[in-house]
Amino acid sequence: MSLFTIRPGIESGSPADTIQNLESLPEEANIHALCAAIAADYVKFVKKHVLEDLDMPQKYTIRDLQVLISIFESDTVLTSAHIVKISGLDPATVARSVKTLKDHGHIITESSLEDSRSRLLKITLDGRALAKEYVKASRSAFNKNGLSSTNQADEIGTVFQLLKDFRNQSRKLRKV
Length: 176
Prior knowledge:
The protein is mostly helical and 176 residues long.
């Protein structure tokens, strides 16, 4: 089966179930419906196949882990504003996630010397361990379910690049 074959969502009633009649919609609606379906199915997949395998208490959301991974993978020290930019999450979600991660000892915050209003986010050893565990569980779940980039490297790489280009173009249009 090709990566481009649209399959129903992981759970019934997902937005992916509604994209079977895309041909009758304008192209813009097709893009929106497909992106919404992919996002919804991704969240369900991670909850079902990654978070359960981690035996992680319900204290973390996917957004919390997304913020943690952003900090973990960054070459520089980030602020909440940086995470909002790179993740696409809204500021309130990032603020809640930073508080949760800080309360559980996965990150620490320090005052910025350049801007006293900004807080620098730094990952702790516990945070680094949780991030590595999450990345490992994610890779395992994707591999086990035939969704790894090694199974369909060319197609996934092409789709990923198209989505990045689409996102960059839409961001440029927002600024106009």
